[in-house]
């Protein structure tokens, strides 16, 4: 690790003797470790100088992704506690709905995924919010692959009705869903758009707390607006 740190501090590369001195290692030990690091791809050697290798870049990228995931989990946990409800974060990626993170508690558990979220986007607030952000062609392509079908007695009945609903959805307005995916549960989702990517943050409540739905949605919307940078970064997780 000391050798790697010494190489990282020398953008123009450094010879083995200099690295051994900076790392406080005997030269034979340094030579042995440097050869091993080159063999494993953590360093590369060019004209007697050592530079960071591709394996270090991969390691760094993995660490950055872990940090983004941790930041996202902490953010959702904060919102969960703020509105006292389970919070979900999803993105639309490569033609599919992906739930990236969920924050809930034993007292307020997340909705059970009893029907695949990816295939039932028409029936839950997260999916409707994501579909509303797509262009017409992408939206219809999704529904061709995942047709509208009844999930509960309250689910939108057909594709035409769903498309009309999505067209009426305000660009940055919450999307509300009442018992369309799970009986006894109401949900709201907030759109998050970053460039060409679509994302959404949502929460769920038991249906007997439906009067909390819009006030909590507005509260979450204000929270999302204050931390848009975190969400934008996390789309790339």
What is the beta-strand fraction? 15-25%
CATH class assignment of the largest domain: Alpha Beta
Total DSSP E strands: 7
Tertiary shape: elongated
Low-confidence stretches: none
CATH topology of the largest domain: Beta-Lactamase
Helical amount among residues, as a percent range? 40-55%
Spatial strand sequence of the major β-sheet: 4-3-7-6-5
Number of domains: 2
What string, H for helix and E for strand, traces the elements in order?
A: HHHEEHEEHHHEEEHH
Helical stretch tally: 9
Major β-sheet profile:
5 strands, antiparallel
Gap from first CA to last CA: 27 Å
For the CA atoms, what is the radius of gyration? 25 Å
CATH architecture of the largest domain: 2-Layer Sandwich
Describe the structure.
This protein has nine helices and seven strands; from the N terminus they run αααββαββαααβββαα. With 237 residues, it is of the alpha+beta class. The longest helix has 30 residues, at 54-83. Helix 1 packs across helix 2 (16-23) and helix 2 crosses helix 3 (27-39). It is 45% helix and 20% strand. It has two domains: 1-52, Arc Repressor Mutant, subunit A (Orthogonal Bundle), CATH 1.10.10; 65-233, Beta-Lactamase, CATH 3.30.450.40. It has helices spanning 2-8, 16-23, 27-39, 54-83, 125-132, 136-145, 159-168, 213-226, 228-234; strands spanning 43-46, 49-52, 87-93, 96-103, 175-178, 185-194, 197-206. The strands form two sheets. Strands 4-3-7-6-5 form a five-stranded antiparallel sheet, sandwiched between helices. It has a two-stranded antiparallel sheet with strand order 1-2. The model has no long low-confidence stretch (mean pLDDT 88). It holds the Pfam family HTH_IclR. One of its GO terms (molecular function) is DNA binding.
